[in-house]
Amino acid sequence: MGIRKICIAIAITLLASINWESAAQTVRFEIVTNMGTMRGFLYDDTPGHRDAFVKLVKEKHFDGTLFYRVVKDFVIQGGSSDSRNARPGQHIGYGDEAVNIDSEFTPKCYHKYGALCAPRQPDKVNVFKTSDVSQFYIVRGRVYTDEFLTKYEQSINIPIRNALKKQYYTPYKAELEALKETDPKAYKARMREIRDQIEMEYRVSKYKKITDEQRADYTTIGGAPQLDNEYTVFGEITEGLDVLVKINNMKVDANSRPLKDVKMTVRIL
Q1: How far apart are CA 250 and CA 267, in angstroms?
Q2: CA dihedral defined by 63, 68, 70, 74, rounded to 10 degrees?
Q3: Long-range contacts of 34-37 (CB under 8 A, 24+ apart)
Q4: What is the pLDDT of residues 57-78, one digit of tens each?
Q5: Dist. CA 209–CA 163, nearest whole Å
Q6: Whether pLDDT at 7 is above 70
Q7: Beta strand pairing call for 27-33 and 264-268
Q8: pTM for this structure?
Q9: Looking only at Cα atoms, what is the longest distance across the chain?
Q10: Residue 141 in contact with residue 244, Cβ under 8 Å?
C-alpha cells in the first residue's frame, strides 16, 4: 500500500473514532446523587455560564448541596449553599454565595427536556435578568401539541402588535383617513412608514418565536418553552435522564423540597 493510501486509511479511522457530539462541545460534566448519576455537556454558545460553572465545580461549590426544589413535570433545582447540611423541613433559598453574571439568550439553547439552566432573582429586583450560576435547574417539562405552541406564540405576539398599533397608528387614524381622500400617494407613503416603525419595534420587543428545532423537541421529548428568553440555558443532560425523572417524581413538602434529601457531587469529566 502506498504512503498516500496509508494516510487516507489513517484519516478515515480517526474520523470514524470521533464522538462528534462531544467534539462539538468542550466541557462534559457529571452529577452524582444518591438517586443515580447524570452526565451531559456545557454549551460553547454560552461561554460565560460555561466558564463560571466550571470554576464553581472545581472549587467544589456544589458538593454536598441538595436538589432542594422539585416541581413535577417542570424542573428540579439544586446547588444553593443554603441546602448544605440543611435540617429536615428547613426552607432553602438562594443562599449567600450568589454568583451573578449576564444572561446569554440564544435560540440554539432552549428549555427542552434535560436542559441545564441558570435560575435568577425575579424581574422586580433583577431587571436585566442576570443569572445566578451558584445553583442550577434541570428541565423535566412536558410534551406540547403543535397547536398549543402556535396559540402560545399568538397569546404573546398579538398583544404586542396591538399595543404598537395603538401607539403608532390609532392617534393618527382620522388624519390618515382624510389624507387618503385628498392625497392617496402621500397616504400610502405615510402608512408604509407606520408599518415599518411597528415592524422595527416589534422585532426588538419580547415577541415570541418558536423555531422549527424547538417546536420539534417540544412536541416530542417535551420541555418548558415558557422559560425561553427568561432564563439562560447553558448545557444539557445526555445520560441518566431516568435519574432526572426519578427525582422529579419524588414526594415533596409545602416548599417543594423532597422529603428525602437528594445530595449531589458535581465533576468535570
Answers
A1: 24
A2: -60
A3: 34/261, 34/262, 34/263, 35/243, 35/246, 35/247, 35/262, 36/240, 36/242, 36/243, 36/246, 37/239, 37/240, 37/243
A4: 999 999 999 999 999 999 999 9
A5: 18
A6: no
A7: antiparallel
A8: 0.82
A9: 86
A10: no
